[in-house]
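Issue 218. Parser rejects a valid record. Input:
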Amino acid sequence: MVRVERRNSFEHKNKLKDFYHKFFKTGMEKLNDRIVDSYDMDNLPLPLEVEIETVNRCNGDCPFCPVNVHEPQRPYAKMTDELFYKIIDDLSELNYSGQLAIYSNNEPFLDERIIKFHEYAREKVPNAFIHMYTNGSVMGLEKFKQIIPYLDEMVLDIYDDRQIITPVIQPVYDYVESHEELHEKVLFSLRLKHEILNSRGGQSPNKKDEAHRSKAKCVLPFQELIIRPTGHISLCAADALGKYDLGDMNTMTIMQAWHSEKHEEIRKAMKKTGRKGLMLCDKCDLVGGTLKGVNGIE
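Output the parser choked on:
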């Protein structure tokens, strides 16, 4: 059976909204604090997620996103082939087995090299869980068939307030439906275009209210390595505009970037005083992260 998920943000469910903030979020904040406190700074594991943004553009107009096409655009940047292969080779030498995403705050199919990049990554980092989120609008069926063998999972985020499989995605849906081996690999996520999500460090265009910003410590600096097209390292996926520069993959290895002095300063501050005083973090309401690999959690 094809996996189809209809997503509705809590902000659109007023009765659930207060319950979420009162119970679920409070519980997650306490869990996040315990996870951050448990990290040994002298024995920090490899990132659970590595994101490589190869071109810093998206064709989406989602009002919750700070890099949608109606917002001031970042200076255009496209990763060189040499830098991409260097990053993948670094991960290969580490026998990396975490999650690998060849996208971040962008639409991956706006890069015409995206299929060959995935082919190379799958060959060089066979133990990684390679996944992709795409709006599918410029993918098409042929590119889908070319890239899907290299992925462990693809999520098609279909932004339409009617929450339907749109005509441009229908051929892909029909193909997946007729290929049972793809049913678990591909998820069609029907999203509300005008939903209100997290504040993205206070940068979300449609969520300026800071009433529910989190006071919890954040696990992401301990779990995510976000590489922008220039090779510079951002704080996390919420740092879509690259306001932090924590390292440079042009001159560093993965390990050097992951343990850079600036990265370590952020983590020490997060462990000691939490988000207070940290740019973006002190306005962010995101609570969560992956628990896999943290103190034996699988």
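Fixed in the parser; the record now loads. The chain has a mean pLDDT of 90.
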